[in-house]
Amino acid sequence: MHCYIPFARPKTGSMRTARDEEDNTISEATAETLTEKTAELEGETTAELERENTAISAVLRDDKTQIEKENEDSTVVSDTHTEQSLRAGLKGVYTLPLVLSIFACCFGSSFQVGFHLGALNTPAKILIEWQRSSYKRIHGPDSVYKEEIIWSLTASILLLGGILANALLASITHRFGRKGTLMYNNAFVVIAMILQQMAKSFDNYIYMMISRFFIGFNSGVNMGLASIYLSEIAPINLRGAIGCMSNVFLYTGFLFALVVGLPFMLGDEENWHLIFLLSYIPVSVQLTLLGFFCPESPKYSYIVHGNFMEAERSLQLLRGRNDVKEEMDMLDKEASTARSTSHQKIGFCQMLEKKYLRWSLYLGIYLVFSVQTSGSAPVGVYSTKIFEEAKLSQLNAQLATCGIGVVNVLSILACVYLVQHPSIGRRLLFLTCTAGCCISTALIGITIIIAEKGNVEANITTPETATTLTSAIATTIASSNASGGSLAAYLSIVFIAVYVVFFSIGFGAITETYLSDLFPSEARAAGCSASTLASLLFRLVVLFSFPMLKKLIGPSVFFTYSACQLFCSILGFIILPETKNKEPERILRDIKRRRMSITSRCCCKM
């Protein structure tokens, strides 16, 4: 008997509820798992994307930097190649017309200036005695001749004429040209020489002063114009050496005047007036050479007058070749700049209005201030009296002055090599000069003080009985007197010679070239004129004040020049740009960069 037990099934509603609950539980668990995994995947993806983005950004930055560097390098290389090729086309050699033009300009201008700067030096004692007798004859025997004032005025009135000349230089050169102005300027020498002979014939010192004024006018034009003409006819690779020629001839003329002024030459009571007649020699030579063999400045012909054909002919003559395209292209670029900025002419007032020219003018005034406050004027004009006051005999003092003149010429000749040396720039030479002059002028003052103190105390004491170390040293040095002067006096000659060497390698060699480099063509005449005017004013103050300061504080006056050179050394290190072998546009960019750098530093400190 089979028993059948039926399977017990749940009710349909309850089965569905349980299954739904189970499905819901599974769905919730799955959803949570999926959410967690999704969040995890999203986090990993986001982090990975951030890493990838960072890496891509870094790569892009590196690529951009590399591209910019490559572009900069290629630009620099391109500019360098362009500049090198341009300079290769601008290089020149010494041709006969170029040499004749240099000689005509320098001999008739710079030599003339140097000659008249030194003409009163060695025969100074005779001239002072003649002036004293002339003064008493005119004003009465009881009148008092004040040597410090009248002789200083005679020596410095030349600078008053120079100041007037420089005030008119820009207008004169713009109208008559560089060559024409050099030629017409000789008329003032002729007038001055006539007055000089009248002074001797009529025994009237007033004529001598007036003649010095006319010579000053001639010298003022020559000083400002010679450097302009030389810089404008010189090839770019010879610009420094040719610029030095002006100073070579200036110091040669100075030495020539010292030699002919010696007592056994023309520097005696009967023949001293014949010294000044020698000025007719450079006048005749310059008029002949400039009139028949030398061209006008190409830059003046093209940039100022716009005469392309005349400028090209002048360049072809000066360079000795027909192909002067590169140099004409450069002149054309300068002419375009001049027309766009100043309509071919910029005066002094316009220079002050234009910021880029105003800073060049400041630099030019700084240069001439450095030169004139170095003590060059007293050393050049009063060196014989300085040596006499250092207890040298009159003849030894005159011979020492001539020896200094020889050192001057030899130093300036050696500087032609230094100026042309590829690794020696104008800035380095100038700063070396200021530092050297600072030290040497201080040593000049010290040795003259010792010489004077020693000569006074040597008569009343001995080194063993001296009460102070200074007295002992001074007395010991002074006790070694030999034929006309003490050891300290001869040491003063040595230190003046050292001063002359430093002066020559900087101030004497490159100042005029430096001035021409600082100004573009359209402002060069006005800029050089203003700078030379400032130079003459500074020189006038220094030259006129030296005898009075010497009387007031003695040889310590040289310490003031030393302090000025110390100041100029520091200032020059900050503001002076390098101009050697650079085109005018690049020089102006360098000046602007230094100006902005100095201005930004001053603003930051404020």
UniProtKB/TrEMBL annotation:
Residue segments, region Disordered? 9-33
The record ties this protein, via Pfam families, to: Sugar_tr (PF00083)
| Chief location category | membrane
Q: Tell me which residues make up the Major facilitator superfamily (MFS) profile domain.
A: 102-580
What is the protein's given name? Major facilitator superfamily (MFS) profile domain-containing protein
Q: What does the record give under GO molecular function?
A: hexose transmembrane transporter activity
Give yes or no: UniProt keyword Cytoplasm: no
Keyword field: Membrane, Transmembrane, Transmembrane helix, Transport
Question: InterPro entries this protein is in?
Answer: GLUT, MFS_dom, MFS_sugar_transport-like, MFS_trans_sf, Sugar/inositol_transpt, Sugar_transporter_CS
Q: Where in the cell is it found?
A: Membrane
Q: What membrane topology does the annotation report for this chain?
A: Multi-pass membrane protein
Say which species the protein is native to: Meloidogyne enterolobii (Root-knot nematode worm)
Q: Which domain of life is it from?
A: Eukaryota
Q: Which GO terms describe its cellular component?
A: membrane
Transmembrane segment boundaries: 93-115, 149-170, 182-199, 205-230, 242-266, 272-293, 359-377, 397-419, 428-451, 487-511, 523-546, 558-576
